[in-house]
Amino acid sequence: MHKTWDIVAIVGSLRRDSFTRRLVRSFDRLLPATVGIEIVGIGELPFYNQDMEASPPTAWTEFRKRIKRADAVLFATPEYNRSVPGVLKNAID
Predict the structure, then answer these.
(1) Rounded to an integer, what distance in angstroms lies between the CA atom of residue 32 and that of residue 18?
(2) pTM of the model
(3) Which terminus of the chain faces fewer neighbouring Cβ atoms within 10 Å, N or C?
(4) Backbone phi, then psi, for 57, in 5-degree steps?
(5) How much is the mean pLDDT over the chain?
(6) What own/partner pairs with CB < 8 Å and gap ≥ 24 does 47-51 have?
(7) Are the CB atoms for 75 and 47 separated by under 8 Å?
């Protein structure tokens, strides 16, 4: 039996039908059955604030748990002013 790979995709665009999100969805259709990919949303994550680490919001803890369970993380992001979008920077802090 082959291992099923669990890949989490973090899309750096919040638009529901962004080109980047559509690209990740197309990967899902092309991958073999032994590889699963799930887009994990970042739009509901509150802004990072180190003061909240002692009692993190539920959105943070659920996001972090999901990332830790994954075998791999795919970052898919549009270029934004020669960098990555602010929502992605916030998510990976």
Answers:
(1) 24
(2) 0.83
(3) N
(4) -65, 155
(5) 89
(6) 47/90, 48/90, 48/93
(7) no
3-state helix vs strand vs coil in the chain, percent to 5: 40, 20, 40
Do 45 and 61 touch, CB atoms closer than 8 A? no
How does pLDDT run across 14-23, given as a tens digit for each residue?
A: 888 899 999 9
Q: Please give the Cα distance from 51 to 55 (Å, whole number).
A: 9
Positive or negative CA dihedral for 80, 82, 84, 86?
negative
Strand partners, 74: 9
Edge-to-edge, what's the strand order for the sheet holding 72-76? 35-39, 5-11, 72-76
- The helix (run of H) or strand (run of E) holding residue 20 is helix 19-30
Q: How far apart are CA 43 and CA 15, in angstroms?
A: 9
| Type of residue found at 43 | G
Dist. CA 75–CA 40, nearest whole Å: 10
